[in-house]
Specification:
Blueprint: H1 3-12, E1 37-46, E2 53-56, E3 62-70, E4 162-171, E5 175-181, E6 184-192
Parallel strand pairs: 1-3, 4-6
Antiparallel strand pairs: 2-3, 5-6
Length: 312
Amino acid sequence: MNNYERAVKKVQCAGVSEPCCCCFGPTGPTGPAGPATITAGLTVTTAPGTQAEVTNVGTSENAVLRFAIPAGATGATGATGPTGPTGPQGIAGTTGATGATGATGPTGPTGPAGNSTTGATGPTGPTGATGATGPTGPTGATGATGPTGATGATGPTGPSVNLSIGTVTTGATASATITGVSPNFTLNLVLPIGATGATGPTGASGATGATGPTGASGATGATGPTGASGATGPTGPTGASGATGATGPTGASGATGPTGPTGASGATGPTGPTGASGATGPTGPTGASGATGPTGPTGPTGATGPTGPTGP
């Protein structure tokens, strides 16, 4: 049944003294729950004087609020700022170019040549001192060997040599020396020590002698007494553990009450107008740069003087 049909039923039942059970239908189902989340979305600025608005651009369960806030009215124009200070003096202009160098003057005439006659020869100087003696010259080559002379006659037979053995000692190095006067000579020898011979076999062990009597043992000194240890106190008895009480039953959880509906967000008031900023005064003009005076001309280079005469 639509709203029109419901209105017709109400008109028909208006004159009935007793309630009519057929005037209204049964109660409809409960509507959906309010939004589960509310999120602030975009905030925009509208023209001055318009109405502030809050619009849900999301869903009925997850609302996203869009705020439209009018801009403040334009403030009055600020007073004109004071005139700025005079700008600094401009920089000087560049210096003009240097004038060209004047032409070189002519070269003077060459002076006359000097007199170069040769003077008279001086007298002869005295004789110098005698110089030092020079080094000795090299030794001349050895002369050739002369011829071998004739073999002389055989001399008489000498006496027989009598050689005897003198001292014989040991040392690190072997040596031999001969002393005495012919025909009696003595031969002295130094002989090195020979290598150590191999160790001979071990001889048989001799019979073991009788064991001597054992000497008497010295008396052992007395051991000092040990100090008495202090008595240890008795350990107290451990108290009995109390019995653990029984755990009480867990109470039933209460039913969760229904969540109340979320009230509508109030409209945000308009933002007050922002005052206008005062105007910035104009910047003073920059002073003109002074003119640079012209550079004076460079004087001509003087003529070069003549070259003087060459001396004698």
